[in-house]
Amino acid sequence: MTVPFHDFGGDGPLVHFAHANGFPPATYRPFIATLTDRYHVIGLPARPLWPGSRPEEISGWHPMAEDLIRALDGLKARGIFGVGHSMGGVLTLWAAIQRSDLFRAVVLIDPVILPPHYLWVARAMRRLGLVYRHSLIWRTLRRRRTWPDRKACFRYFREKPFFARWPDESLWAYVEAGTRERPEGGVELVYSPEWEARIFALIPTDVWRAVPRLRTPALVVRGAHSGTFRPQAMARMQRLLPGARYCVVPDAGHMVPLERPVETGAIVRAFLGEFA
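Predicted structure:
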């Protein structure tokens, strides 16, 4: 299937941005806006956002990295910048390892690279068929999906602790990108909870084998309060990939480019500027 890129616009060298699980590309508009005066930014919607896609069609995240490679090949893109957040950070990492000709530099923002003992637990839960009992997954499947309108949706999310650090601009960008109008009235989530839960259930347990194979210049960014890319994971990554740059954004969690879009954008701009 050919899926169009989301085009954020801008002038200059091409940047591909890969989004997190559950958050369509346009959610990141405030963060991307810090880049578009120097760069042309595009973002491929991941497979959960493709029309007619089904969660059971994948058994891991690797096919989504292959989707990205195929899409960039379709543009005949070479030597671009790759920026990815969360799931998108892992997909960008794998794509850059498999096809280093595509990227001149990459930025991995709070990638889903868990400490090894967390991954051991994830593997054990899969073997025992218990993965869908994980609280993150069953809460995702039970999340609210519809609202009377986008203002009601915004108010609903504004009260949730997960969004406490998000400025209103980021939250509105999510509400606008993450919902669509229903034929019968109201709005509903664009990114289905079934797909979101499936992605969580398939969190990659082989990603540490990939880390030392990255040869593309890289910046790795972590939110200081991230519970996903934890301090011990970043420390291990620094040992395995000593040539990369590392940065911690204060007063930010896993959703760092949405919580601190201006600060994160400044960090990314400074790094990309060395290679532009």
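Summary: The chain has a mean pLDDT of 95.
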